[in-house]
Amino acid sequence: xxxxxxxxxxxxxPAGDQAALNSYWTLIAPAGDPEARTFGVPLxxxxxxxxxxxxxxxAATPAMRGMIEAMAGDELAGVVFYICDAFTGELLAQQNGTxxxxxxxxxxxxxxxxxxxxxxxxxxx
Length: 125
Prior knowledge:
Helix content: 10-25%
Structural class: alpha+beta
Order of helices and strands: EHEEHEEHE
């Protein structure tokens, strides 16, 4: 069985950019995907308080990867992203990150690289 979903993309944005980047994401994602609330994971340096950043981790096709990389440093200059092989987790590309290309990473590695933690709502604890 083959798939077009070859990549895992981890993205972190400044919290103030959430609305604009949710709208942008609807252009990248396949038609019909409910991307209007993509960046819903609240993040901060302590894992508490008001979110300073928002995050998302999603599967992506080669076309989606191409669009993200084409806009890197332009429309997405302040955005942090890590593009990985969906099956091995191998880091293939990144913007504003400091991890080593070729190593296997996951969401927790991304958060540690950026000095952030997930804010877990009290009702979940």
